[in-house]
Amino acid sequence: MLRELWLGDARVLGHLLSETSRTDGALDPVVAGLVRIATLVALGADTPAYQREVNAAFGAGASADEVIGVLSCVASIVGSTHVMSAAARLALALGYDVETALESFAVDAR
After folding, report:
1. Is it the case that residue 99 has pLDDT exceeding 90?
2. Is 17 part of a structural domain of the chain?
3. What whole-number distance in Å separates Cα of residue 11 and Cα of residue 13?
4. Using one digit for the tens of pLDDT, what is the confidence trace for 51-77?
5. How confident is the model at residue 103 (pLDDT cuts 50, 70, 90)?
6. Cα gap 63→54, rounded to integer Å
7. Which DSSP category does 24 fall into?
8. Domain that holds residue 81
9. DSSP characters for 38-105?
10. Domains in the chain: how many in total?
11. Partner of 50 for a Cys bridge, out of 14, 22, 83, 93, CB 3.0 to 4.6 A?
12. How many other CB atoms sit within 10 Å of the CB of residue 28?
């Protein structure tokens, strides 16, 4: 497959860009879901993209701890700005009440 990608094989590229490529390949579905979330962190994706991929990862059997662990794995590569931005988006995708958490943080900081 690497050769075909390197040469720009339209058939292979078309398959990889399709939704069916999510479920085939050498990666376990949970690992694939976590890799997709890591990619969102690196790209600085929006909250709906995180929501979609978190739901897919949960559907494959990933835990919230594994999803959050992605940030630790990529932090030294993508940097603090991406990780901080991703943390808020990921928290929303996981269903955390971010506003309440920030309010309690402000109270604790006093």
Report:
1. no
2. no
3. 6
4. 999 999 999 999 999 999 999 999 999
5. confident
6. 10
7. -
8. 27-109
9. HHHHHHT--HHHHHHHHHHHHHHT--HHHHHHHHHHHHHHH-HHHHHHHHHHHHHHTT--HHHHHHHH
10. 1
11. 93
12. 11
